[in-house]
Design brief:
Blueprint (H helix, E strand, L loop, with lengths): L1 E6 L5 H16 L29 H8 L3 H14 L20 E4 L1 H13 L10 H15 L4 E6 L2 H10 L12 H14 L5 E5 L5 H12 L5
Parallel strand pairs: 1-2, 1-3, 3-4
Helix pairs in contact: 1-8, 3-4, 4-5
Length: 225
């Protein structure tokens, strides 16, 4: 089982990923191993629920934000390509490449394609390694090596996201209230033009975690063996 969950920050992607991890493990015997949820600069270290000692502390996140756009771009691009290597999805040999039989990620190349040009001055059409090209490269590789991967878009209203931003702010997040309409629209755009054929979307505006997970499980049935 391979799953990629995307959506504007505060739409509930990380929260759902943790619930999917538990559901998949408990109900299906899935072996995710960890969650690849490290694509929104400056929160790019460590994995839940293991390797949490590698999460960047506040000082390290601030230092990362001082790095030049050129270095940030290369760092993110190299990390993306590492996570789509064919060995990561080679049945029975995933562990040889440091991966697990099942794959659960949040954001990945779509986070990078949206956040890079908007906040970190890399990846735009007139810059080296435009993310419009990189996104297609990543998705073609995923489709070839992991054709069963499922793309899930989480959405929430601007008002809901603003409330969540105020109630539980993410340290050093670059996301601004004034950008929310644009960012939400960009996630929708990337979802709609994604090359990944297996996909569905959920709205968390009025849903609690239990309801959202139930909707996720219902939608996933068509993609389960």
């Amino acid at each position: 089982m391979r799953i990629l969950i995307i959506g504007c920050e505060y739409s509930g992607t990380t929260t759902l990923a943790k619930a999917v991890f538990k559901w998949g493990t408990d109900e299906l015997g899935a072996e995710f191993g960890l969650i690849h949820d490290h694509w929104k600069l400056p929160q790019v270290g460590g994995h839940t629920p293991i390797d949490e000692d590698s999460f960047l502390n506040d000082q390290e996140q601030l230092e990362l934000l001082d790095i030049s756009p050129r270095i940030l771009e290369q760092m993110q691009r190299h990390s993306l390509y590492y996570h789509i290597q064919p060995g990561a999805f080679m049945e029975g040999r995933e562990h040889e490449q440091g991966f697990s039989p099942d794959y659960l990620a949040v954001g990945m190349h779509i986070d990078d394609a949206i956040y890079g040009p908007l906040y970190f001055n890399y990846g735009a059409e007139d810059q080296p390694a435009p993310r419009s090209v990189g996104t297609q490269n990543v998705e073609r590789a995923l489709i070839e090596s992991a054709p069963d991967i499922v793309l899930v878009l989480l959405e929430a209203s601007v008002e809901t996201i603003v409330e969540r931003m105020h109630n539980n702010p993410h340290p050093h997040s670059p996301l601004k209230e004034g950008d929310l309409n644009h960012v939400i629209s960009r996630y929708k755009q990337e979802y709609e033009r994604s090359l990944i054929p297996n996909k569905f979307q959920l709205d968390t505006t009025s849903s609690n975690l239990e309801t959202t997970l139930d909707e996720f499980v219902s939608n996933m049935q068509q993609y389960l063996p």
